Amino acid sequence: MPANPYERPATSDRPADARHLLGSFIGMIGMACALFLVLASGLVAPWWAVVLLTLVWIALFVLGTRWFMHHPWRVAALPVVMAAVWFGTVMAGAFLLDWNA
Q1: How far is Cα 99 from Cα 90, in angstroms, rounded to an integer?
Q2: Which of 2, 9, 28, 91 is the most buried (most CB within 10 A)?
Q3: Residue 80 backbone dihedrals phi, psi, to 5 degrees
Q4: Domain spans of the chain?
Q5: Is 9 exposed, middle or buried (0-12, 13-18, 19+ CB in 10 A)?
Q6: Is the CA virtual torsion 84, 86, 88, 91 positive or negative?
Q7: How far is CA 39 from CA 1, 55, 98, in A?
Q8: Which string of DSSP letters, residue by residue, matches 40-99?
Q9: What is the mean pLDDT of residues 50-61?
Q10: Do residues 75 and 28 touch, judged by C-beta distance below 8 A?
Q11: Are 99 and 93 in contact (CB under 8 A)?
């Protein structure tokens, strides 16, 4: 029976340390907060813009789940990217397309 490639070899009696995943957890909490920004945009933006922002959020969330174990600090940057995309979209819509509440 082959060894499980996802299982870490036991090197000591201590439990595995999860501190290296701190960035991933910070990033996913931030992505949850960014979802509230995106969905609350319906107060200002038209429905199609909210749908597009939601699709961008889903793409970044999937990317974050793929990076979760191997690139935790990249995951921590994803909510900042989403907030910048959201802010730019809402500001561009307000100035160019006359979106208002």
Answers
A1: 8
A2: 28
A3: -65, -40
A4: 43-101
A5: exposed
A6: negative
A7: 48, 11, 19
A8: HGGGTS-HHHHHHHHHHHHHHHHHHHHHTTT-HHHHHHHHHHHHHHHHHHHHHHHHHS--
A9: 98
A10: yes
A11: yes
pLDDT in tens, 18-38: 778 899 999 999 999 999 999
Q: Which two tokens stand for residue 10?
A: 């036991």
Q: Of all helices (H) and strands (E), which one includes residue 29?
A: helix 22-40
**Residue 44: both structure tokens together:** 């200002």
Per-residue DSSP letter, 20: G
For the whole model, what pTM was predicted? Answer: 0.81
Separation of alpha carbons 100 and 56, rounded Å = 22
Give residue 89's identity as a one-letter amino acid code.
Answer: T
Amino acid in position 42: G
